[in-house]
Amino acid sequence: MSSFFLTTAIDYVNSRPHLGTAYEKITADVIARYHRLKGDDTWFLMGNDEHSQNVFKRAQEQGKDPLAYCDEMEQVFREVWARLDVSFDDFIRTTDRKRHFPAVQRMAQVCQDNGDIYEGTYEGFYCVGCEEFKPEKDLVDGLCPIHKTRPEWIKEKNWFFRLSKYQQPLLKCYEAQPSFIEPEVRRNEILRFVEGGLDDLSMSRAGQSWGIPLPFDPKSVVYVWFDALINYAAAVGYGWDDALFKRRWPAHLHIVGKDITRFHCVIWPAMLMSAGLPLPGQVFGHGWVFFKGERMSKSLGNIVDPLDAAKRFGPDPLRLYLTKEVPYGGDGDFTWERFEEKYNADLANNLGNLVNRVAAMTERYRQGRLAARGGGSLAGVATDAVRTYADAMDRLALHEGVAAAYRLISAANEFIAETQPWSLAKDPAKADQLSSVLYDAAEAVRIAAVLLLPAMPSSAAEILRRMGEASAPGDLRFDTATAWRASGERGILNAGALWPRLEDKGAPVNEITTQPAPVNPDAPGASVAPAGTPAAAAPPTAPSSQPVGAPSVITIDDFMKVQLKVAKVLEASNVPKSKKLVQLKVDVGEAEPRTILAGIAESYQPEQLVGRTIVVVANLKPAKLMGIESNGMVLAASPEGGGALLLNAEPAAPGTRVR
Ligand code: MSP
Predict the structure, then answer these.
(1) Per-residue pLDDT tens for 576-628?
(2) Residue 588: strand pairing partners
């Protein structure tokens, strides 16, 4: 078993987590869960960065003792991470006196003992937003390019770390360990920066009490970044448990944002070199998540609270969106409209519909039990998807990994559309074929769910339960769980819609989460109007620009596109194995009578229908239901809680246009 020690940046606690900081934790969590699934001895560390001046100021503004303020914020952060299903193994705070203080003091002392720390005076700019000493050349029109504010001019006695001494050793390290900085764009940035020469770094602040005192000058505190970076070593024993440290260090992967890659790829390895410690395996600098194309910031008032996004549909759709829609390493964008669109497309219509169809058809045609079979074309698709997925996840191309899982899901949906299990079910000679089709689809869904476990832990676990997976998700191991199973029998559970389709952009949250979606295994993708006739699959409702609750308005031209016609019912019969459908033969004034299926069997007996004059939609795209092609739709009133009432067009002649 290999070990895998993974960290994220530790967050400043001057405000609650926003969608950008949550993005980092969620994607790191996907990586941690993937490694656990592979059976690696995984250790996932997160934490809070508390010795920042901004944190101190925020506490003062609230009239709180800074440590008491940080204690409160710890709870806020922990709650958000729990609600987003972020499964860290350890959480460190830089005010931790048992672990972090001794580690920082030890490293400062060792660097000093090794001659890498000297006393001097810093005179220059300091951006409190970045907590960074800013050389004038990094400013744009005198402002910090990130915070758009003028940095403070400070002059103080400081201790300096000999960063300049590590220019060549760092360049050698990047050369010897090419994957130390990923993705490539960050590697190139850092290479250019280090090749340009390094200035020594001020590693202490004078005249401040909020921080960790330097062991060799207790009146100065350690500069917040020198302090914060040490958290990764402090958490695993550095300075307080040498045996533990030896066992866990070095970290295999630091996940950080692109804005702080430089601290992790230049200062941190130089500090470790100075302290004589091994370097981490890799620093991955992910991109930024923007809101409607803009940087999220308090001053712009466009901060997205990740809990609002998780409340919309639960944490998993948010986790999927962030993993699938943002190429890992690049930037991405979040808008509520896009989030809802992707929810409908990826979850309600694609994966959710697939799970429902497989479970509902297995219940209907095989009493919910399936015996394993050899595996047809889908087995090959699954093998490819698993291979592509593992390759992508190992390269941290998380978006490609999830896309591979989705290719399997789409292939399973297409497979059902092509093999038409509902038609096979009608022919007893095709019973074997039907069993194979259902098993293959269920097995493909099961494998896709294993691939989605890291990104959508609870939904994927629920899908596995419905697909009859006997092992608990935590007991599954990637290689065995993603192999096509060719023996055994399993029970498939039909338990309703996982992700009801979102019909109205403005629908309130509770309406979305409590409304059950129609499940009709006979008409894949089609939602059956309660009293109408299922016909062509309804496309997802486009987001409307109308105010919430306003009835939608169409033009007369829109209405005239619908051809309503008078029709006379010539024949009527129940559709076998369907509780709702009646098959009608109607005269619409054309050369031949038409066949129309109507979902009115619960309201009318076939014999009550023959001879009636009704209204139908004559230009609806034909659709196949239960193997029968329906050519039109019957109009009926659908009273709340009551049965369908057919519209009576008597005494008009068949074919008369209704307007
Ligand atoms: N405290 C420092 C990190 C110290 S690590 C030894 C810090 N904190 S932060 O709270 O400002 O940011 C925490 C992480 O969130 C950073 O990796 C940062 O890049 C990331 N993000 C902040 N806003 C972000 C987005 N809008 N999008 C993606 N990640 C973003 O920096």
Answers:
(1) 988 889 999 988 877 678 999 999 998 888 988 999 999 999 999 898 888 89
(2) none
Bond before 250 cis per omega within 30 degrees: yes
* 522 Cα–ligand 1 center, Å: 49
- Cα of 8 vs centre of ligand 1, distance in Å, is 9
Do 363 and 494 meet the contact criterion of CB atoms below 8 Å apart? yes
> For 287-342, what is each residue's pLDDT tens digit?
999 999 998 877 778 999 999 999 999 999 999 999 999 999 999 999 999 999 99
Strand ranges, E, within 81-168:
90-93, 117-127, 132-134, 152-161
Q: How far apart are CA 405 and CA 448, in angstroms?
A: 5
Residues 456-482 have pLDDT tens digits of 999 999 999 999 999 999 999 999 999
Task: Choose the residue to mutate in 127, 229, 259, 296 for probing ligand 1, maximizing ligand atoms within 8 Å of C-beta.
Answer: 259
pTM for this entry: 0.79
Long-range contacts of 129-138 (CB under 8 A, 24+ apart): 129/54, 131/52, 131/53, 131/54, 131/224, 131/225, 132/225, 133/201, 133/202, 135/199
Distance CA 334, CA 325 (A): 9
**Is residue 506 scored above 70 in pLDDT?**
no
Nearest CA to ligand 1 atom 6: 229
**Pocket (CB within 6 angstroms of ligand 1):** 9-12, 20-21, 23-24, 49, 228-229, 231, 256-257, 259-260, 288-289, 296
